[in-house]
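Student: Send me a single protein entry containing the residue sequence and its fold in token form, directly below this note:

Tutor:
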Amino acid sequence: MAFNGTWKVERNENYDKFMEQMGINIMKRKLAEHDNLKITIEQTGDKFHIKESSTFRTKDIDFTLGVQFDYSLADGTEVSGTWEMEGDMLKGKFTRKDNSKVLTTTRALVGGELVQTYNYEGVDAKRVFKKQ
């Protein structure tokens, strides 16, 4: 499976503005910009096991494509949603539990990098990961 492996964040684009739109305070935003996030992805068919490890936390996430699940973002924001596979791209749609607003995200392999995009309330951001 193409996404399998360990990926370390290399650069961010507009991530601070995205986090600000999400309502994350400036201290947490500054810390998150340098979180050294590492994602390990193990895909078996339509099931995924993801381990996120950063300066702040380590979290294991298990989900099945198309099946709704609950997730807590690094800042504590609770969301519920699903991941779907569209071609070679993972697309996630998550609804915040506190205000019912929608966060969308994608994961795709572009030129050997894992590119994760985010959109919340009209603000787009991107994080680019290199395979370890």
Notes: The first helix runs from residue 15 to 21. The helical segments are 15-21, 26-32. The mean pLDDT is 95.
